[in-house]
Each structure stands twice: as C-alpha cells, then as structure tokens.
Amino acid sequence: MSLADATASTRPPRVTPRSAWRPEPGAAPALRGSVRDVIDLLRGGGVVALTGAGMSTESGIPDYRGPDGSRRVTPMTIDEFRDGEAGARRYWSRAYVGWNRFRAARANAGQEALARIQSAGCLDAVITQNVDGLHQEAGSRRVIELHGTLTRVVCVDCGARLLRDRVQAALTRLNPGYLEAALDDAGSIRPDGDVDLPLSLEHRFRVARCEECAGVHLKPDVVFFGESADRQTVQACYEAVDRAQALLVLGSSLAVMSGLRFVRHAAARGLPVAIITNGTTRGEDLAAIRLLGPLGTVLPEIAEAVSTG
Ligand SMILES: [Zn+2]
Asked: How many other C-beta atoms lie within 10 A of the C-beta of residue 21?
C-alpha cells in the first residue's frame, strides 16, 4: 500500500481556532539531553506519553503539518460538517472513499516499541491526539484517545454509537459502484482519513441513516477542528498527568492547545518533560530533554535498553 503525501490537497485554506500558532520562520529547536536521558527517565517509571500525528506518519498516515510546523493540510471544521445535508454529504463521500486506505494502515516500529516500553513497566498511560487506533493495534494499554477514534460513529440525534465498519457497509449498499468510480478520481489520503474528490461525485453520494433511530446525523466519533474535546476525556488526561512522574511527548508539534495544555500542566507541576519529534514544536521552552529523530528509529533503541535492564 502506498499512501501518497497530502500536499496535493486543493482545498482553499480556512482559518480555524486551531490554526493560530505559526512557528518562527527558520526556527530550529534548541536540542538538549540525549537518548540516554530519556532511557533514565523511563527507568524511573510513572511516565505518561503524549503522542501526535508524527507517531503515525511512518504508517503512511500523513501529518497536518510539515517538519517546519507550517500547516499543509486544512481539515474539515465542525461548522462545515454541520452545514446541513451538504456538509454531511461532503464529509461522508470523502471519508467513505478514504476509509479502506486508512484502515489498511498498520502499526509501525515506533508504536510497537512504545508498547514494549509499557510492557517493561516504564510507561503508565498513552494520551494520543491520533484517531487511527494504531497504538492499541501495536499492543499499548491505557490509551486515552483525546480526539476520539475513526473506528466508531456516533448518532447526533439519539447518541447511539455504531461501528465504523457497519456504517461503511451501509454506505456501500446505498452507493453501488461509487467506490470504484471514486478511486479513479480520488486525491491522496488526508490525516483525518478522507480524500479529495471531484464535486460531481460528491453530489451524488447518499449518506447513511442511524440503525437505531433512522436519523441522518451520523458523525465520526472524533473531535473536529473547531470543536472541543470531550470533557471527561480531558479530565482523564489531566488525572493521568497528575499521577505521572514525567511526560514524554512524541511526534506532536503541540500546535493546538488541546495537547499543549497537558505539557504546560506537567511543567507547572515541576515534572520533567521530554519531547522527541521530527520538527519544531510549540513546547520548546517547556522541555528538559529535547531530541529530534525519526521515532521508528529512536523508540526501538529506547525499548531495547529498558527491556534488557
Ligand atoms: Zn440515532
């Protein structure tokens, strides 16, 4: 499977509440500490990981941002999704086509290494901003999905939660031949699991109804841009950080407050914060340890060290 880069997106840029942060042009992280320091931190136990899109790029799911932190993909906002039938049709037509490719992504070496680090007793919980379920597939436990998951669908009308695969099957019954027609024209997959499609295709798409109440307001069980994360989930994240001895940030630019607030909370409590990413982050000043590197290389090295004592 080859999931192309998302830079081919043709959507016009939109201003959303989450797009306010911009890295300084040419800014580079001030690196400090070493892999050895991260290993020592983990051996102390009680570490909580906070992971972002950079954790899944090696599985072929693209990041919203380039290594310099600048946005290269503009996701659909909650206001666009709620824009009546047209909004729902725009979302589901694209997500329907993108789902098979998104679902085909497999856990990568970094995610598998993180699960081994947890098995070694060095990691308490994983807070993830990703909606792809790959940490769980890799074997991680106590994963808090801050932005929800694409594997579930929620009915806005009656609150029912449905499996995405069942909704996908219903969409196939409603739209025979659509997938085949769309795959010829689809753009590259995007971080939120959809693809760019021509308007002519989008307009003929039929959306599915809720199995429980027959309502048409089905929403993927994820936090859209412009929407707040679930309050109880946020609380669970704070509690995990409150119990932690250290915070390890992996593959997140921390561009959105949704994740950054936990790093600030940890730093304010005096916890050591370690950040490993491939690019600039908004949390540079908060990190006691700051490393660059592909997580698929760095994390296996760390897992090997903590597993062998
Ligand atoms: Zn319903």
From this structure: 16
